[in-house]
Amino acid sequence: SKYLIGLTIFLGLLGTFWGLLETINSVGTTVNNLDFSENTQKLFKVLKQGLEDPLSGMGTAFSSSLFGLGGSLILGFLDLQNNQAQNRFFNTVEEKLSDYTKFSLMNMDDDDKKNLSPAYIEALIEVTTENLQKSTSVIDKQNEHQESISRSIYEINQFLSENVNLNKDIREEIKVLSKTIANINKK
Fold this sequence. Notes:
This protein is mainly alpha-helical. The chain has helices at 2-33, 40-50, 52-100, 110-114, 118-186. It is elongated and about 150 Å long. The chain starts with a helix and ends with a helix.
């Protein structure tokens, strides 16, 4: 991609110089074709026709310069986006792999433990710290969940106690109503 960016800049510069070369040559040809011994109308007509070629050369120079600049900008932007996507992908893969990688000091000999580099031990401590923080977070969430369940059970017990008392009151009212109805039927 860096090669293509450089190539578009080079082609733009090449086209610019080509157009400027055409412009200079056509201006030289136009000046050489001017005959000052003729009348001024014919002189201006020849000058006008002669200036069409330099303008064409300047157009070539300008358009090729814009092509080189625009092409390099577009390719540079695409290269930047590609590099960022590639870096995001590699970071994601690295994170996923580091989540699945485990290291066990218990299975190592004492000699192997002595040969561990400080950077590796530091990384191991960092991973262990992260795992402990995650575990602490999970335990805290479980404690909150248990407290929520305990509150809910307490509220349910309160509700049931109130309903039991209400049921007792309703039974007593039903007994009173039954006696009253029985007394009314006897009369």
